[in-house]
Amino acid sequence: MADVMIAVMPFHGHVAPLVAVAEAFLAAGHRVRVYTGAAHADRFTAIGARVVTWASAPDFDEHDLPATFPALRGKKGPRQMLTNVEQLFVRTGAGQATDLTRAYAEQPWDVIVADGLSIGAHFASELTATPWVTVSIVPLTIPSRDLPPPILGLQPAKGLAGRLRDRALRGMTRMVSSGIQRAYAEERTRAGLPLDDLALEQAFMSPQLVCASGVAELEYPRSDLATQVVFVGELTRPRANDAALPSWWPDVESCRDPILHVTQGTLNVDPHDLIEPSFTALGRQRVLLIASTGRSDVAELPFTAPPNARVAGFIPYDSLLPRLDVMITNGGWGGVLAALAQGIPLIVAGGDLDKPEIAARVAWAGAGVNLRTGRPRPRAILDAWRRVTSDGSYRANAQRLAKSLSAHDGPREVVDHTMALLARA
To answer: InterPro entries of this UniProt entry (predicted)?
Structure first.
């Protein structure tokens, strides 16, 4: 039996996969504590884990980030991404480390298992000299000499000119992110740690074990993939739950037309970005559109839905996904993997953060269309839908990925790999 500390950044999209991981550790008989924001504590206490909440680190409401991080106000696109990384994920690091080391002093853990954006787990691992496992809940951001910089949403270039392009972009990215690199150095100092020479992308990933969600078929080929990386498939598979189906669900059960799901995830949930143009594009087509707002307390939209559309805050995926023909998504990794695990082709509008990278990988794998923006025009959505429905290769590739994903049991594999690491320590 091991004592496990799980560190989770307090976002719904981060919490859901780590709940599954925590459940797997508990089912295997291990003791589990979870470090996360107060808003998500109940998710973990409900499964029997003890919770340590953010205290020295500034706890926040993911639906109103500027209230805690004013520098984010009014920013979108690349500026939002850079500010997000610095303010939320880097400059909270020393505070996270303080909270975690306090918890360690009260009861030592054997291993800290953290989502791939918890820099505080890295610091706490160093300060306590304990093993650290990263669970990457987004595509790998470990830099490579064979690839363009991560998060730019660019597929690897071909030929000498392409390799030179990628090398130049890697240099430019280091320049643009120099402020974030300085923030990382400052947080190490605040945490009482010596400076190191790690690039920020490396600092988020454990040198001992990285459990990467997804499968190798969704990862660009690279000759320098770190040996500690293992792919574990999905972390959160849809399952039966107590969430009520919306009152209009009989319309879904009786529908004979193609069913499309439109989702903007749970972070940037302005419905004008993706839901509204999807309604404009497909409101007169012979399809049933099912839109989710990403907020359980918001089940309506600020504009009129067409007659062939239905709207809810959240919709249980165990009921919805088996009925879908196509998903139109902002590119959240969990939702993308859930759709691909069902063999559902995708139309991806990846606007910011990791979403452009996810959209590019889906297109590279041939399982969907990359709209190359988070705010697509209706015509682009209509054209993408026609491509996906008329070209059978998109569904065939999605089904190929579904077969690969079905070979994994992500949460159990995280437990097995972690226990093997402890056995070697």
So the answer is: EryCIII-like_C, Glycosyltransferase_28, UDP_glucos_trans
- Same domain? 39 vs 68: yes
86-138 pLDDT tens trace: 999 999 999 999 999 999 999 999 999 999 999 999 999 999 999 999 999 98
Q: Contact, 301 vs 280, CB < 8 A?
A: no
At residue 176's C-alpha, the angle toward residues 185 and 364, to 5°, is 110
Write out the two tokens for 404.
Answer: 């690969």
At residue 415, the 3 state secondary structure works out as helix
Q: What percent of the chain has pLDDT over 70?
A: 95
Question: 242-256 burial by CB neighbour count: b if 16+ within 10 A, else e?
Answer: eeeebeebeebeeee
Residue 241 lies in a domain: no
Tell me the per-residue pLDDT of 304-339, one tens digit each, with 9 for 90 and over. Answer: 999 999 999 888 899 999 999 999 999 999 999 999
392 is in which domain, residue-wise? 249-406
Of 195, 173, 172, nearest to 184 by C-alpha is 195
Q: Which residues, other chains included, contact 344 with Cβ-Cβ below 8 Å and sequence gap of 6+?
A: 321, 324, 325, 326, 327, 398
Q: Is 240 inside any structural domain?
A: no
Residues 415 and 396 in one domain: no
Whole-angstrom distance, CA of residue 417 vs CA of residue 399: 27
Tell whether the torsion through CA atoms of 144, 149, 152 and 156 is positive or negative: negative
Q: Are strands 309-312 and 288-292 parallel, antiparallel or unpaired?
A: parallel
